[in-house]
Amino acid sequence: MIVNELVSDISYDEFKGLKITFINMPLRESALPNTPPEGPLILASILRKYAAEVHLIDLNGYRVKDEDSSKRGLPNGRHLSLAEAEDMLLKHLSNAGEQDVIALSGKITTLRWQEEMAKIVRKHLPNCFLVSGNGLATEIRGGLFNWIPELDGVARSEGDDAILIIAKDAQLIKKMGIKNAVNSTKLSPFYKGEILGKHRFIYEGNRPTNLDDIPYGALDLLESDPYGYNLLEDYINVPVWGIAANNSSATPFVMKRSLTTVSSRGCPYACAFCYRGAQGERNYGMRSPEHIAKQVRGYVDNYGLDFIGFPDDNFAVSRKRIKLFPKVFSEYGLDKVRWGTHTRMDEADDRLYDMAKSGCVYIGFGAESASPSTLKKMQKGGFILRNGIESIRVNGRSYDFPKTMVDAVRNCKETNIHANCTWIMAYPGETLEDLKTSVAFIKWQQQFWTGGFTPGTEQYKSALGGVNAKMFTATAYPGTDMWKVVKPKLQKHFDISYDKLGQPICDENFHNYVLELDDATKILDDKRGNPVNFGEMPMEQFLEAREHIDNDEIEKILSM
Q: CATH topology for 239-473?
């Protein structure tokens, strides 16, 4: 492919003297940061191979506890303010000097932050090459220039090779100036000419042939921020999963020191609500157990960890790879290292035994719904419903659950692996009865995991607390099949319009919609400030159900 060809002849000292800084954007403010930004850290390691000087400013790593955070009801602390973020950039420039490339990294939920940071960067570094990558750039593409005019380029999809092409273009522009660089015809094919009065680049990422050839992330970049603070220790001390993490996970056990790393990329499946463009789309690729074990061994030795998280989209696709883990982990002395990951519920079969033998104690399942009707609408029915239905009584009433889901939970318990399910409410077409079925499955799990423990005891409380009862609100992300389904509602509520190819036009209406996508648990407000409900429940029912979920009283939904 063109990307591989463009980087095949780069010499070992190609980028000597080139200074590059990644800026990682803040994510959900209510949750403590517990997953280091592995993407930028891997790209930093790749650039270092060719002598570039690389830095990272991780804005997501901070939660400030002060009077303001208390007033806003943020017990874990608030994000940095824009003024504080600007001060951090200035301190970094004072330490490291003027930078040639600034690369903004973040999901689509970080649009507001990227807009503001781009202005700050341009104010202090008017001549740097400014590019945005990861989820936001992947989903919005060149339309992002309408909203962040300060950008020189956007980088779509995986960045392992694309970052080298970006560095080559930036280096040429630094040497010759943009006009001469354009006239030289030596810029990459991703130069798209002048767009909105500025020279622009739209990079298309591509995955290297062998994921084992990609270096581990440069964790040392987190060991000292511009003020000398060790952010890496903060990440290590916040659990990857569990109640303390304040995300959609729950565990009956605790972890004291944990880190994460992705063991596979992409997902071969196509759930309607999911967008996978930034991590390989449906192109599934894996690292070998040996490559993973070597990294985990280093992490445990260097940082004294007691848990490793693999937050893959889908860890267990390959039975062959799973079979190798017990032997390889044992060879690396990792027999007692606990770890967890994500799989599909139909993969929770005999694979669990080898996963458990190699130290797996946690699996997060994207259950999303227990209603067969809703699962079909989500395009999950094919693999979840293939084993039929099992009727189970919950609170005096029988509910029809997918047998695959029930068996997954049972199989996890048999192999001493904790099963955590995540849920989505108000998916297009979901009725109150559909939602009740999901709630009933959660209640069944609570009964299943607490069975044998006396109510009120610590064992009972721990088992009960290990069952996730939170739910996301169904949200339409650009590029998903769900987006296509709710297109009429998007036009009605947000005045979103489309071009001839059916892509949303990046005008102010679409801009306002994307700005709303900053928290997957919240209810979106439309252009008039009214709540938006993509499901089939009447608005009054929807709001009542959401309130019960937010108040940790989901059992009340069964009585609605």
A: TIM Barrel (3.20.20)
